[in-house]
Amino acid sequence: PDVQYTVTVTPDPAGGGGVTKFPEKPTYSPGEQVTLTATPSLGYVFTSWSGGASGTTNPLTVTVNNNLNITANFTSVPDHTLTVLIDGNGSVTKTPEKTTYLHGEQVTLTAVPGVNSNFAGWSGSATGTENPLMIVMDADKTITASFKSDIHTLTLLANPTGTGTITPNPVKSAYYDGETVLLTPVPAAGYQFAGWSGDLLGSNVPGQLVMTKNSTVT
C-alpha cells in the first residue's frame, strides 16, 4: 500500500487559538502540500510555528514527507482601552460598553447627534463618516466624533415660477457649515434645465453647493 503520513497541529497554550488545515484529511501522500492557517482567540496573537515547522508565516504551506507534529504558538496580550471624545453637540454609544477590550474584539460605535446637529465624521484612530462604525480593537484607540450645528438655510426657486423643481440631497431644514448639498433640477413638462443662478453658477447636474451661509439657488 502507498505510504501515508499524518499532520498534527497543536495550539500552545490550549485556548490561545486554532489552526485549520487545507486540505483537511486524516492522512497525506508523500510530497503533498498542506496549508496551515492559525487564528488567534480574542486576547491572543499568533507568534510562531515550532516542532515540525518554523517561522512566523501565516498561512504556512508545508510539504508532507513524513509524519509532522507542529505547534502553533500564541501569546496573550493586554486588554486595550477605547476613549471616545466628543466635538460638538452629540454623543456616542459603544456596543459592547466595557472598560477594556480583548485584543481583536469588535466594537460598534454609533454617533447620535444632538438637537439641530449633524454627525460630521470620525477622527483620531478612525476616519470617515460611516455610522454606525465597526472597529477592531488591535491597540489602544482614541476616537473623536465631530458634530456640526445646522446653521445655514437653503432656498430653492424655479425661474420662471412653475417651470420645474429642485431636489436637494440631503433633504434638510438647515445645513451645517461646510456641508455639501447636491442639487438636481426636475423640469416641468415642456421645459428643460438651462443653468443655475444665485449662490450656484454653471450648469452641472447635479449641482454641488458647499454651505457657507444662508443660500438661495435658482
Reported for the largest beta sheet, the result is: 4 strands, mixed
How many β-strands, per DSSP? Answer: 18
Classify the secondary structure makeup into a structural class.
mainly beta
3D shape: elongated
N→C terminal distance = 86 Å
Question: Mean of residue pLDDT?
Answer: 94
Q: Fraction of residues in helices?
A: under 10%
Task: Kindly describe this structure.
With 218 residues, the chain is mostly beta strands. The protein contains no helices and 18 strands. The strands form 6 sheets. Strands 7, 10, 12 and 15 form a 4-stranded mixed beta sheet that branches. The chain has a 3-stranded mixed beta sheet with strand order 1-6-4, with no helix packed on it. It has a 3-stranded antiparallel beta sheet with strand order 2-3-5, with no helix packed on it. The chain is elongated and about 90 Å long. The model has no long low-confidence stretch (mean pLDDT 94).
List keywords for this structure.
elongated; 0% helix; mainly beta
Topology diagram in text:
Layout: E1 7-12, E2 17-22, E3 32-40, E4 44-51, E5 60-64, E6 68-76, E7 82-87, E8 90-95, E9 105-113, E10 117-124, E11 133-137, E12 141-152, E13 154-156, E14 164-169, E15 175-176, E16 180-187, E17 207-210, E18 215-217
Parallel strand pairs: 1-6, 7-12, 13-18
Antiparallel strand pairs: 2-3, 3-5, 4-6, 8-9, 9-11, 10-12, 12-15, 14-16, 16-17
